[in-house]
């Protein structure tokens, strides 16, 4: 086998097997790297990344402990393990073993140890966001309503404040929305808002926004054709394990949705390593597990290989574990009945080898050793073999902060993601709508006040405003003989004004006069 069609993983000598290779043709059939803490999983991950990069395959991996940054620097003869590395290389027949550095791009959700990684709320979607916020079924339903309203009202959901403002709008219009989507509880809306606030306080708000990550920036190769190794700084991120798992699952989903079908390529287009895989499945709802299973089942036809790294194979659901064709099992410790049961289950997933008992071998292998099984011709599982994992060509252990910064400054995407964009989205649009509605309400109120003022003026104009005439309590005097007919009529008219009927007559007459004008 050659470097162009396979990756050398380790090999034989004494009771160990001959050289073991991961065939690039089957590298997109997914894989599992398992073992107890301190048994060598990180080095195995490192040498697989080196081999894939040499073959021109871009890689993504998370650096949980900070050790994988050493991929950016060549190993050194001054390293304390140099002698052991050279001895092992000779023992397994690694004749062309040399030290070399590899092309690395550092990423960080917090933008501290690598280029910032962002996505939008819309791209995350309600299912993954509900998982991230640990929402109940009722709360998840309201989140689905929010996303539906955002689509119908053309409100882009880019960052957390977009989602927060939309939830406020939904709470204010709950009665109208209930007619179409069902009951919207203000208590559930408030609960989601509180979860978003916690997420924001944890620093996750920086993850949502623009510019969003362009996955094409991870599919690059360097001038010599080696695949780019993308390393996510996850040491700080592990303090928010739900965010860590949700981000990696989002990225896997994005790969699945954006990449075209390629069938069975000669080598993968991209390989994705998911470290601390148990965090993905701990407490995950059935819908999410089904989603992962679907993606794992179908994404290989898009040229993407997915490798889970975890302590126990049982950390991965059986339906997904059954799709892991390439396996590297480091030592497992069986101190309890549960551990022993997990050990037997792990051994049962390997193709038996007549030379040794797989269960015993998994208990006995030392640090840097493993029981391996790689897919062979026609995609069949290879016989399990005890294997000495080859030594890494890159530096074992982390590089210095100064060296890391130098790599960041010279990377192909330097300066592309550092500046945050804040274009008009749901927050700004709803704010403008609220301002417009407030202005229209103010203008309507003003017009109503003007109409009321005119009405008062009109009513005032219709009232009689002359001097009030009161009835005399003294005895009425009869008209004198000398009074004329007109004077007598006028006196009679004036007397009648003081009565209720007279008042009605005056109002009628005055009204007629105003109408005549």
Q: What's the oligomerization state?
A: single chain
Please write the string of helix (H) and strand (E) elements. EEEHEHEEHHHHHEHEHHEHEHHEEHHHH
Strand content: 5-15%
What percent of the residues sit in helical stretches (DSSP H or I)?
A: 40-55%
- Indicate the radius of gyration in whole angstroms: 40 Å
What does this protein look like?
Helix 16 (485-497) crosses helix 17. It is built from 17 helices and twelve strands. The protein has a twelve-stranded mixed beta sheet, with helices on both faces. Strand 1 (6-11) and strand 2 (20-23) form a beta hairpin. It is α/β, with parallel strands linked by helices.
List keywords for this structure.
43% helix, alpha/beta, disordered C terminus, 517 residues
Summarize the structure.
This protein is of the alpha/beta class and 517 residues long. It is built from 17 helices and twelve strands.
Give the secondary structure arrangement, pairings included.
Elements: E1 6-11, E2 20-23, E3 31-34, H1 41-54, E4 59-63, H2 82-91, E5 104-108, E6 115-116, H3 121-133, H4 137-152, H5 160-172, H6 174-181, H7 186-201, E7 229-233, H8 241-258, E8 270-275, H9 278-281, H10 286-298, E9 304-310, H11 318-321, E10 326-329, H12 337-348, H13 358-364, E11 369-373, E12 385-389, H14 401-409, H15 426-462, H16 485-497, H17 500-516
Parallel strand pairs: 3-9, 3-10, 4-7, 4-8, 5-6, 5-7, 8-9
Antiparallel strand pairs: 1-2, 1-12, 10-11, 11-12
Helix pairs in contact: 3-4, 3-8, 4-7, 5-7, 5-15, 12-13, 16-17
